[in-house]
Amino acid sequence: MFRKAITDIELKGDQISVSRSLDISLSQAEQQIAELSYSGVGLSKDPKVEKAKLLPFALAFYYHLFSQRSIPTEKELFDRYVSFSGREEENEIIIEEERYSKTGLRARLLRTYPSLIRDFHLYLMLQESNRFQSVGYSLSKDYYDGLDLSLNHSGQAFHLSVYLQTKRSAEFKKKKYTRHDYIGVKEIAIPLEFNSMEKLGQIYVCTDAHIQTVLHKIELDSQS
């Protein structure tokens, strides 16, 4: 209907939102993922960067998806994040007049990069499975309410979160439970092990078996 795949522009109150077709199929995403380079293994942590409250890396990731309709490379993600959050001067990134090590910030971003890809890949898997009435993701709900992917199955709403079975991921998940109120939320939490996932290039992603696990947990919920 409109040019550049824009499907709608909506004004509501003091907000303006733009909708556009995603135009990335699961098979296309998997091809992109298989071609990505990943250099985030074993990078040193910078204490100041690790403690800093920064803009979510997901903001740059999903904006790139929106604007380019492709999965960002690690360089594209880092460059876009810097353009969103601050500016670069020599080997430092200045965010709200605070100086951070460029290598430290890049290391922190790259530790998150595979999970951002994995979540988007899972979204496409759920969407194309045709087993759910709707599948959704909201960055705002993720950041402010701690709610990841949303699912609707047989008229029931669920929120799905997947996380690696590592000490770091378990600690992050525990923090989310203390920061957010999950009363009344039907959450399906799926811990992931590397040997249960498929490796596309250098990135581990979920498989059809994980979709079946989600459906099984929904079935158990309906019987309780």
Write a compact overview of the structure shown.
The protein is an alpha+beta fold. The chain has helices at 26-35, 47-51, 57-68, 74-85, 102-129, 139-145, 167-179, 208-223, and strands at residues 6-12, 15-20, 87-89, 92-95, 98-101, 134-136, 149-153, 156-164, 187-192, 198-200, 203-205.
Structural account:
With 224 residues, the protein is α+β, with helices and mostly antiparallel strands. The protein has one domain. Helix content is 46%, strand content 24%. The strands form four sheets. A four-stranded mixed β-sheet has the order 6-7-8-9, sandwiched between helices. Strands 3-4-5 form a three-stranded antiparallel β-sheet. Strand 1 and strand 2 form a beta hairpin. The longest helix has 28 residues. It is globular.
